[in-house]
Write a structure and sequence with these properties.
Number of strands: 5
Order of helices and strands: EEHEHEHEH
Radius of gyration: 13 Å
Strand content: 25-35%
Helix content: 25-40%
CATH superfamily: STAS domain
CATH class: Alpha Beta
Length: 120
């Protein structure tokens, strides 16, 4: 599930669940909506992402690239180490600012250790 919210300068995406091939049908619509909002800052909240594959990474990369072409910035908050690793392997980690100060609210029944150690 992907929720979009906005302020005068920021678009925030809150992603929950898997960000993978099975979810790809919604990516073009979400991308069009985000790009159409034309905000300078895109914040992608990944606190509730349970799995991301290369399809999900490509989606995030396309959002960051579209923002960068308009002179904007994309911030990842709550991204697990495994998600950052996928983006690094794709050679795209430098497209994002990483919010290292954000602390995700605990998911019911899931610890940070569980999330950090989940298989990539």
């Amino acid at each position: 599930m992907i929720e979009i919210s906005t302020s005068s300068t920021t678009t925030t995406l809150v992603i929950a669940g898997d960000l993978d091939l099975a979810e790809r049908d919604q990516f073009p619509e979400v991308t069009a909506r985000v790009v159409g909002l034309r905000r300078q800052l895109l914040v992608i909240d990944m606190c509730r992402v349970t799995f991301m594959d290369s399809t999900g990474a490509a989606f995030l990369i396309s959002l960051a690239d579209a923002g960068r072409r308009r002179g904007g910035a994309t911030v990842l908050r709550g991204a697990a180490e495994r998600d950052l690793f996928v983006l690094e392997i794709c050679g795209a980690l430098d497209l994002f600012r990483i919010d290292t100060s954000h602390r995700c609210e605990p998911l019911e029944g899931v610890t940070e250790d569980d999330r950090a150690n989940a298989p990539a």
